[in-house]
């Protein structure tokens, strides 16, 4: 098999890449049958964004702090591991932001799109689903829309639900909500269009982030699942992503 090896900038990841290239060779991504990413989950997200257009499967090896999207790092039998791997298809969210001047920006997120207050004052947001206002005023530190793959990341730390990978749903999770006090978010059909409007952007500025792409001082944000832009992640059978997400619901720590 023809592999394209990419690695984070850490010395341990770079050293692992050199050893793998010595054993299996290395080709440019456009000539590869699979991309092998060495690092942590953050590097995996950057790899998915960078090579999404090639429609190649991506196999990760954990050489970073967090490796929920990665497999164990081993030098031996890489072709066999990839042939036996389970495929997890991930579909990103598309974020469209509008600022005070009417400028629009687009970005994709495989984990989540999040809105966060930029000042010491809570954000005031209007929440609309499929053109219907569901919350006229949400007072909070922020809000996020998370994919199933991203539901175990920032979404989980904000007390959002863990979503099965094949459930075709998204998590809408508030961050430190103040009003309404009892609203703790919602689980949405994956085709739901979420529109978030900043009610007082001058006094209470808000930023929006799609994975690691941040836009400051937004006035309105629309989020929807990006059709036809999925990616394929490969996992060893004993560490497939569906089972990991299920197990995370019973984790004691």
What's the structural blueprint in terms of helices and strands?
Blueprint: E1 3-7, H1 11-24, E2 34-39, H2 41-51, E3 58-62, H3 78-84, E4 86-90, E5 93-99, E6 104-109, E7 112-117, E8 123-129, E9 132-140, E10 142-146, H4 154-157, E11 169-175, E12 186-189, E13 194-198, E14 206-210, E15 213-215, E16 218-225, E17 231-235, H5 241-248
Parallel strand pairs: 1-2, 2-3, 3-17
Antiparallel strand pairs: 4-17, 5-6, 5-16, 7-10, 7-14, 8-9, 8-13, 10-11, 11-12, 13-16, 14-15
Number of helices: 5
State mean pLDDT (0 to 100 scale): 94
* Helix/sheet category: alpha+beta
Tell me the major beta sheet.
6 strands, antiparallel
Give the N-terminus to C-terminus distance in angstroms. Answer: 39 Å
Instruction: Tell me the CATH superfamily of the largest domain.
Output: Probable inorganic polyphosphate/atp-NAD kinase, domain 2
The radius of gyration computed from the alpha-carbon positions, rounded to a whole number of angstroms, is 19 Å
- CATH class wording of the largest domain: Mainly Beta
Count of domain modules: 2
Which band does the percent of strand residues land in?
Answer: 35-45%
- Total number of strands: 17
CATH topology of the largest domain: Tumour Suppressor Smad4
What is the CATH architecture descriptor of the largest domain?
Sandwich
Stretches with pLDDT under 50, minimum 5 residues: none
The order of strands across the largest sheet is 6-5-16-13-8-9
Helix content: 10-25%
Envelope shape: elongated
